[in-house]
Amino acid sequence: MFKRLTKNRFKYQKKLIGNSKENGLLYNLFIYFLLIVIGFVFLYPIIYMLSTSLMSNLDLVNFKIKWFPSKIYFENYLIAYKALALPKSVFTTIFVSLVATITMIISSSLIGFGLGRFDFPGKKIVFILLIFSYIMPKTLFLIPTYQIYTKLKLRNSILGLIIPILLGQGIQGAFFIFIFYQFFKMIPKDLEEAAIIDGASSFKFFYKVAIKMAMPALVIAFVFSFSLYWNEINLYSIYMNGQYKTLPMLLGNLRDLYYSEATGNTQIDPNLRFSEAKAYAGTLISIVVPIIIFSIVQKWFVESIDKSGITG
Questions:
Q1: Cβ atoms of 297 and 222 closer than 8 Å
Q2: Partners of 188 in beta bridges
Q3: Are residues 21 and 143 in the same domain?
Q4: Which among 24, 230, 271, 310 is most buried, taking Cβ atoms within 10 Å?
């Protein structure tokens, strides 16, 4: 009887607390609770914006209404749709972001390959300059960069976006260079020597072998670079003189754009007045494309982060 009670006690203790081979129920509950709390912290702003964007202006001033509107009000999205010049602005933003992202991947992979596979005089100086350009506030380079763009006649042209990226000076360019440097540095030297013996040049080894082995770096660079250039405003509005009207640029001027597109008398219909509900509707519209892209590449992105060891 005593042995059976002892056996049952250890059995329930194993289920609750667990052991070195298996997690117990209490541990799993704690982990799930922690994940739910962290997930809620990240999802709360989106849930709040979605709830507010579906409210009319009358619901916004009604203190009795907190999360659920008295009636779903889709007019906020229709107004934001017209004010943001959709779908033209979406295609413009996708085009500019893809051009910048592809150029960033090409330049960063080439520079990272050169730094990872070759030793040359001044290599340490190049690393110091890359680190310097990465940690320094970008606002310090705003006026000098504007003057350089003006003298080289790169303003008002997409070349003002492409040329700095090709030279490794795109948005967070040093970060992407270090990612590719880390991957190319790990490629065994014997593999490169075998390719050279077979008659392959260093560049052929790069695009035939090395770049295929660095697919995790490509995925990471694509996701981060696309999101950076999708949300960029200063580069397009200052250096490129607003030639490309991207969605985030229009979102920043949503209030003015709304009043230029608004119809009807806002004094008669309070719902026509601009409010945070319309701003949140425009914000949610602007993040749809990045969410779709990340949903598609999520599996490869997480695997790439795991293989690269990038944290923070």
A1: yes
A2: none
A3: no
A4: 230
